[in-house]
Amino acid sequence: MKSIGSLIAKRLEPFGCIISYNSTSKKQRIPYRYYPDLLSLAANNDVIVLSCALNDQTHHIVNREVMEALGKKGIIINVGRGGLIDEMEMVKCLVDGVIGGAGLDVFEIEPGVPEELFGLDKNFFFGLDNVVLSPHAAMVTPGSLDNIAQLALANLTAFFSDQPLISPVRLD
Length: 172
Fold this sequence. Notes:
The chain has 172 residues and is of the alpha/beta class. Helices cover 33% and strands 15% of the residues.
């Protein structure tokens, strides 16, 4: 659990959600229950929210075994990277009722979205569609664009005034 995961947890707390996490190691500063592997996290929770980086260790970290552990009422939410989930297995698990639902704003091969996902709104999970698809627009909001413009202007002002940059880029 890093910065994005911590922010997600902070937003879920007021709703009374029981928050757990999986990470490369237990974080002493984090008060939530730690699971050393994703399989045990899935087996003991109803919802998994993915917000980690995609690398060799996390590629398809959510595979069929994890989805089966999550169970028929389980929901996967992926706001990280599409390759975190074995997407074809997820489609099969959704169609077969192995998992209850998915909320996705990233896909394994973007901009492609598996056709099968568009038809899953015919299945129902407690009266709701079991798949929610959204375009990945993580930082594209009016407020964030204004902040980017202000930061760029502040950096240019600092640069041309021989002052330290507000957000220097390190190339090491």
